[in-house]
Structure formats: C-alpha cells, structure tokens
Fold these 2 entries.
Entry 1:
Amino acid sequence: MEKKTRITFIEGERIELLPLNPENVKIHARWANDPKTRLYTQNVFPVSHEDLKKRLDQTQERPKRDIFFEIYHKELDKIVGFVEFHNINYINHAANLSVVIGEKEIWGNNLGTEAAKQMIKYGFEELNLVKITASTLKPNKGACRMLEKIGMKLELVLKNQTYFDGMYVDELNFCISREEWEQTNK
Amino acid sequence: MTEEKKDKEDKKEEEDDVFPFIEGERIDLVAGNSKWANLVCKWMNDPKVRHYSRNMWPLTLEEVKKWFEPPPDRQMREFIVFTVYHKEAKRPIGSIGFNQTNWVSRNANIFLTIGEPEYWGKGIAGEASRLMINYGFTELNFHKIFAGVFTPNSRSLRAAEKLGFEKEGVLKEEMYVDGKYHDIHKFALFKRDWKMKDDE
C-alpha cells in the first residue's frame, strides 16, 4: 500500500505537530470517549465521530480563533494526542493552551511537555501573542508538573470550581508572558 | 403637520438612529446604518469624490447595501468602518476605517472618504483620522498604521505628514488615474511615536 505523505507543520525532537487529518477523526473520537483520558479533559458527554468531525472542521476564518494540531510520534509512527490554542484573542494577544496525550500507554514520557513547548514558541514567535494561559484540575498532578516544567506559573485558583469524579475540585490557572518566556529561551 | 414640526420630527428620528462610538469635537464616528446606503452610494459614484478615493467602478445601491450587512459572528474583522457624522449639521458626511487588518502583525491600512466636498479643507479629515488612529492604538492594540496616498492628492499628503506619518517609500507608477500613471506614497505611523505625541 502506498504510504501517505505526512503533512508536518512544526518539527520537534520526538514529535511533530500536524494539521488535523480528517481521516484520523475516529482516533480522536476514541480518545474523547476513553474513560481515563476524558476524565481530565472533562468530557462528560459521549461524542460520536460525526460530532467530532463537525467540531474539528477547520473553518476558513482568518485569523483563526482556534488552532488545532495532531501530535505525531515519530518513532511510533502514529498520532498520540493533540494540542490546541483556543479562544485566541487578537486584541489582548492572549490564548489558552491545551495539551492532550490520548494514548494512555505512553503517559509519563514528557511528550506533552515537548508539544506544549513547541506551541508556546509558535504562539510567541509566529502568532505574536503576549500571554498564554492553561488551566487544569488540581488532581491532575501530571499536568501541573508539565505546566511548571515548561515555565508556566500558577496565576489563579478557582476553589471547588469543577465537579470531577464525584467531588468538587479546584481549577488551577497557569500562565506565561512573552517576557518570562524570552528570559529563559533567548 | 406644519413643515417646521415635521422637520423637527425628522431630525429627532435621525438622532435616534445615530450611535456615536467615538466622540470628537465637530464630528463623531458612528456605527453604520443601512438607511445611509443611498448616501454612501452617491459618494462612491460622485466623480469628484471617487477621483480621490479611487473608485473606478460604477457601484449599484444593491452592492452598497451589502456593506451594511452584519459581519460573520465570532470572526475578527479585516474591515472596520465608521460613518463620519457631522454633529452640528446632524448628518453623515463620510466614511473612515481600517482595512487590510493583520491581527497577528498588528497593522492595518487607514482609509477615509469625506463624501461631501463642501467639508473638504476644513480639518475634518484630520480630526476623524486622529480619532481613528487613537482608537487603533489604544483599543485595537495596533503596532503600526499605514496609509497610501497617490501623488495628485496633495491635501492627503499634507494631512498624513501633519498626523505624524512618515514616508516609507514610493510605489512608482502604481496607479492609473485619469489617463496617467501616478506614484503612490506609502506612509506609516507607529504606536511608540503616537504615544510620544500624546504625552507632550
């Protein structure tokens, strides 16, 4: 069978960030419904792959309000998750980052860290953002560690904001400014 | 109903339809209103006006009406336009706006048409431009505002310099106007320079 050409947008060490390939929508649907993965992404409703296709359909709007990439693992030769800027605000030049590794078996390998670093660089250097935020839930220790590792700082705690797995938990908001990022990355 | 009374009511109705977004001294920049489509259509086709605002195509009212339709939701606008409304005369006299807006590089082209030639040369264009530039830098967070003026439009050339625009370059024989090629002078104004002016 003919090998499909991979479309790469950002080249990393172990991973690459690719624009969404509609053929992969079923993989994304599997992650969106996966009991363990969806716990942290707060997907409390079932998602059909048709729903997802509609949601992920890249609109023609420019500048884009949401920017979505698949995380492709070079060695495994498959996509393992996704990263996204959503609600990019072009007046404030701020955006919210989210990173999801959909394949549970490879959690703990710092792949999310690598993807998030690429996104932050892309956000500051190509999109001209001045602030990038990310939010997670207190029980998601892995995400908190990851956000700190990439230089994000805890900015705000929303007490008992989210009902998560049978109890109310805090939502933690992290952020990094372009100055902070430049100090350690230039 | 007496003529006078009717006139008064018309004026009242007119005022109810005007929503100033940015207030100036003699003029306000107000949100568009489709009832002015006729007027805008007249301006854009007027030989004297279109000579300077460089419109060489006949524009139908239907086309102009489309400009007043709401932009798509959620989307950042590439085109931001206001009606220049004369406060004392209580009537719209032109349009001003940004186009070619680049939200990543944070710049835009400023354009302006005073559609009623009787208001030319009275500093109204300057006032409207200052309001618009200030809006661009303080509310839209632009880094740079640029403008293009073609050579015979000496009034606009002077206005651009008076506003603090600096010439960036000349595009040679870029524009064909009334049987001849003309140069376009490209001007730019940066936020840092505008701020300095404000502080003075």
Entry 2:
Amino acid sequence: MTKINKLNPESGNLVRCAVVGDLPRIIELDKQISGLDKPDYWQESFRRFGGAQDGRYFLVAEKDGQIAGFIVGEIRAWEFGSPPGGWVFSLTVDPDTRLGGIATDMFNTICDCFRKAGVDKVHTMTDRDNITVMAFFRSQGMMAGRSIPLEMDLSDGEASS
Amino acid sequence: MKLQRSSRLALYSVLELAARPDEQLSASEIAAKFDVSLNHLAKVLRDLGRARMVEAVRGAGGGYRFCGNARRTTLKNVVEIFEPITLHDAQGYEPGDKTEFGASLAVVLGEIDDIALATLDSITLETMLKLTDRVQRQGPSSQKK
C-alpha cells in the first residue's frame, strides 16, 4: 500500500491519492479537456489504478481545496523488452489553474513514487500534435526514448496472410 | 537534421541572452564565444530584433538583451525566422517524385519531418537552458542513452 499525501508549501498544491468521491470531478475535468464524456472509462481506470495499490498510482492535485488536476501511472516490467520502469499515461490540469505548478507537483510526486519502488526511468507517450503536453514533459527533462511507437490502419488489410 | 548557420547562431544568441536576463551582452562578446564573424552575427541579431526576441540597449554598458518569454518561445519559433521549416512535400518538385518509389519515399521523409517539427515545437528556450545545465553536469554522452 502506498499512501500519498504531499503538500508543496511553495505552490500550495496538495497531491494525494484519488478517492472514489473524486471521480465526478475527474470525469468533468477530462470532458473539459478532451471534449468526450467517458464515465465508464474513468470508473474502470480508478478500479485498476486507484486505491493506493503498489506500483499503481492514481493521484489528484488540490488547489484551494478544489481538485485541479490528476495523473495516472504504473510500473510496467519488460514491456517490449524494457526493464521495469514507470509509465505516466494520463495527465490533466484544469486550464484555469495552469502555470500554477500543478502538473509539475503531480509529476514530481509520481516520479518520487517510481523511485521509491526502485525504478530509474519514467516513460510517457503523447500525440505529437499535443504541443502543450509535450512541452510540459520536455520541461521536466524528458527526451525522446529508445522506443518508437508504430501503428497501422487495420482497414488497409496489409497484414493479412 | 542540419540547421542553417544563421538559425544555429540565432539559437545560440537567444539562449546566451536568455540565460543572463539581467545583463546586456555586446555583439562582439557573443561573436567571440561562438567563433563567428561580427558581421554575420549583427545581421542575425537585427533579424531577432525585428522578431521582438532581443532588443538593443544603447549607451555605456549597452548591448543586447533577451526580451521574449523563455517559457513560451520554442526552438521552432526561432528557427523559422531564418529558414522555412517545411514538410518534404512542400519543398518543390524533385526528379522521381511522381514515380511509385518517389511517392513512397515521400511518406517516409514526411514521417521524419513530422517528428523533427514536433521536437522543435515542443522545446522552449527555458527547457533548453535546463537541458544545457544537465548536459554540463552529466556530460553529453549521458543524453544519448
């Protein structure tokens, strides 16, 4: 069990484990950013990654008592041959609170969790048109990794035998 | 990827100035550090001035200073002042482009262009300054792993 409750005295942001009561605000924030309402996805995501499970982290950031963002990640081992490492696969911040250090506090906290769990590399993946998020991750020191994501339209039927 | 000399010099100049926001640096100081001609640098600084990234401070102790926003200005913003950052298929017709191999080569080169563009557009001057500190502390080879 990994209980997380970390206040950054400089920014005033509190980063803690998400609880089930946070889900409506998480769903609302995601809808605000993505334009998609995905309550089932976030309930399933909370079931899988919430609840302070070892190696799985679903964290929220509070600013002035209001949830201003969330981050989700886990430790994955030997995915595509990579040694165990942390993966961040969701990061959302309320646009009204941007430039308040919320994403930085959440990212630093989840990186601390990864370090304490014994891994020394953090990975993420983002759409290359999502410059805001990519610029944030780069500002934290992230660089292009060794893995290159590849994809193919299955409708083309190219992989048929 | 290879940038034109003016683009590289512009990046070096804005980074040098952004790293020392409380100082004004003379063109000759910058030219000496990067071992370039003063004439070439003067032209680059003039173009950066027109783009409102640097400003000249006149008088004793005058020089140039960075006047943009290092958290917002990306490498792409600087480079595109000096050279077009165009995708492969926008660079005009090349012999063979209309053949079947030309078409598939365009797909591959387009993939490379897209990644290069996204990289330049997502790295701000502030991020570059942090990267510079890290490279200085750890050595350049550590960044290639």
